[in-house]
Design goal:
DNA-binding, Arc Repressor Mutant, subunit A, three-stranded antiparallel β-sheet, homodimer
DNA sequence: ACGGAATATTCATCATTCGGAATATTCCAA
DNA sequence: TTGGAATATTCCGAATGATGAATATTCCGT
């Protein structure tokens, strides 16, 4: 991915929010949809866009499609995410919702594909306050 | 300027090159044109775009229009320029050409508006090797 | 007033992006 | 094999962006 494309990933707010989430670990499309409260089509299109740019890749796992940032993550991207999280509370908020959502689905029988499920355990430990509405 | 617009400034290579030059100090459109060897219309349009985003501003000085980065320069922009210069030799090259060009016009009777002219003195001191073709 | 230098704008075209709505696909479970 | 969940695609219209050619404007010097 060239630097121009890298900046395109960050130049649109919904795209940035998705990249911000995926930087913490892989997620399925429906999880992103839940965490960000955005429509399915918008999520799917932005993911396709990011995939075209080479920023993310995915593989199907049964009913789900697991999305991840393409490795290795460009240090320029990582540094920008770090700086952006410091300045825009929304991004930090999204990360909290991410942990909350993962913790919320951790108890379900088959909550998510393995790579996502692994994070649920972590989220359980770090997200004791319930801060997303899907937690039952 | 919001962060999305900031990244738009960096997402196109010609635009990035212009911002990179202006980060070192104000320049006229024709100077940018010379340093980057790009067409007048393209320069003018990208400058208009950057002005629309709020990244640059300008004021007319006789026949010239002096462009500057809008103050204060966002630290996020500055940091990205710093990192980009380390990874893309082209940007560092442009800066050398910038210094070479300014040194080259330093001896002319009326080389440029005052804000640009001031940098010519600096360029004279720092640019002893002649690395641009306009130097006569 | 005229010519030239520096800059801006218009026009036409092509490609990209975006939005919403609708529909299609893939997979699993029962 | 039918249904539902997750995801992708298509269609459409509106908006934006880039390019190149041509033209317009602004200003200065003479």
């Amino acid at each position: 991915m060239n630097t121009g494309d890298l900046y395109l990933c960050l130049a649109e707010s919904d795209r940035l929010r998705i990249v911000n989430l995926l930087a913490e670990g892989p997620l399925c499309g429906c999880h992103i949809q839940n965490i960000l409260s955005l429509g399915q089509v918008k999520i799917s299109k932005q993911l396709a866009y990011l995939k075209k740019l080479g920023a993310v890749n995915c593989d199907r796992e049964a009913n789900w499609v697991v999305y991840r940032l393409s490795e290795p993550v460009d240090p320029l991207l990582a540094e920008n995410l770090r700086l952006l999280r410091l300045r825009s509370p929304g991004l930090a908020e999204d990360l909290k919702n991410r942990a909350g959502f993962l913790a919320g689905i951790a108890h379900e029988e088959k909550p998510a594909p393995e790579p996502v499920q692994k994070q649920c355990c972590i989220a359980m430990r770090f997200c004791h306050e319930k801060n997303n509405k899907d937690t039952k």
